[in-house]
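Structure ticket #2291
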Amino acid sequence: MGFISVLFGALMLSMACERQPKKMILQGEAQGSYYAITYYDEQGRDFQREIDSIFHAVDLSVNLWVDSSVICKVNRNEEVKLDDIFIDNFNIAQEAASLSGGSFDPTISPLVSAWGFSAKKGMEITPEVVDSLRALVNYRGVRIEEGKLIKENPAMQLDFNAIAQGYTSDLIAAFLDRQGVSNYLVNNGGEIMARGGKPDGSFWVVGIEKPADRWDADQVVQCRVALRDRGLVTSGSTRKYVERDGKRYSHCIDPNTGYPVEHQVLSVTVMAKNSVWADAFASMGMVMGMEKSLEIFKSLEDVEAFYIFVNDKGEMETYATDGFPIID
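Resolution: structure written out below.
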């Protein structure tokens, strides 16, 4: 009996060693975009319900398109208790604003709405309108005290759209970590967080899109990137824009001028320690331009960037920092 038990145990151990984790793919629409989550799990667990609840919690906190969200109530100066999601986004946004010298500013909401990049219809833009709204944009004029948001001017409004999707990717990643899943790729509308790799030990591979001529153009891959244990986000102006009097205006608005940016950078892709900071840095890079944003990125650890821009000859060109992991 002892020999048979040992033999049976050895056989079961051998079978367990040969068992391969099951590849799970969850995908759908959320936060005005798509998501695709790939992970490997020996138990083949389906986390769709839990991940749906994460999206729902973020929407109820910081989604400007959800009228009952915490951020909408804050913007309307209603009494509301700030939750952890709102406070996290606020603190990250304030840190990014300070790091960028105000080029990234979470109080930019009045300008975003005026230009037509929100749930509200845009306004007729004049220098006087821009100047009046710029007076409401100052991240130093808002703070949290005893669980409440304090504004220097009640007309000030917040907008976390530049980081909320990246933050959501990190929440989903943290959930998978807690479940013991060590190999996954979370893609929430292009805001990516990767952990580990594939069962064969290879890195995750992510494509960076070539700038498009129109918002509805087919996607073309500019290059591919090897990713492991990092966040990756691209911000660009060729798909998100409005047209006024026959001219296109980027969704990337400079808080310092009140106008959409008009520099030569078409897109910025940033790799950072997580998705929310990659999101913040990519937005920062689009507003500041390549030269100024590179000064910041090169001063930080674990931040790499890839720029696609138009050179002085009108030709498309690319630039990557030394550690950016392009594989073709």
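Closing remark: The radius of gyration is 22 Å.
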